[in-house]
Hints:
Layout: H1 2-28, H2 33-38, H3 44-54, H4 60-72, H5 86-118, H6 126-140, H7 143-157, H8 173-179, H9 181-207, H10 210-217, H11 222-259, H12 265-274, H13 278-306
Helix pairs in contact: 1-13, 5-9, 5-11, 5-13, 6-9, 7-9, 7-11, 9-11, 10-11, 11-12, 11-13, 12-13
Amino acid sequence: MRYIAKKIGTLIITLVVISFFSFLAFSVIPGDAALSSLGMDADDEAVEALREELGLNDPVLYRYGKWLLAAVQGDFGESLQYYMPVKELLADKLPVTFVLALYSMGFIIVFSFPLGLLGTKRPEGVTDHVVTVFTQLGMAVPPFFLGILLTYLFGIVLHWFPIGSYVGYEEDASAFFSYLILPATAIAVPKISMLARFIRNSVVQQKQLDYVRTARSKGNSERRVLLKHVLINAMIPVVTMLAMMAADVLAGSIVIEQVFNIPGFGRLLITSISNRDYPVVQAIVLYIAAAVVIMNAVADVLYQKLDPRVS
């Protein structure tokens, strides 16, 4: 419990530091949020009045402290573009990006482990070489380009995929979940290839160690040695890779949402940056940072479960 409490404390400090630097960055970069909200034709008095109303003339530290106090209570302010609370705006987009990321991570976990273990029985054999070629090809294709290829193949050639016909989860849940399969595949394929290769190398390395020969000498079958000994030790670096991939999936979804016309965090983030809608951008950055930090904290806790020597 002490280890977990320490990780939670580190998580909170990390989020505060990230939120401060993101707030500071949006305060010093060129561009005026008030001018973007009113338009380029607005007179100076109206712009100055809006700046005063939004508190943009206050010192940065004062504005950050006020924003952080409200954010802790779930209030991220009001969007300068949509004129509605940021919390309500994000509540509509969060399930879309969350399901897309969940789909992607599910595909990564389900397919990478069997693929990674396929070539470990006979390293450098025919099966191992075939898997290596497949994983190298998968890692070489960027997700956005793979998304375009999948759209062309399944949408234009085979007519299996409705191009650009996104349906919200509140309208038709079945159509919503079906529509996200293809973009999730585009995100997952390069990660599956990368993780499968990583699992293969980690397992092969563990099989060469002395404890594996000892387990075999006690009469254990290869399957038992793999499941009860090798995989447990091989999973420690794999857990690290999975935590990093969770962050990559979130980042990759921003581009993929543009390719497949999905109204999630990605499109909202790009639109908000171009329109200087800083309250929305700050909230999204904090959400993404929280997801990444939490995943790394979970990975650290899993380390201790896999290897009690970690402290």
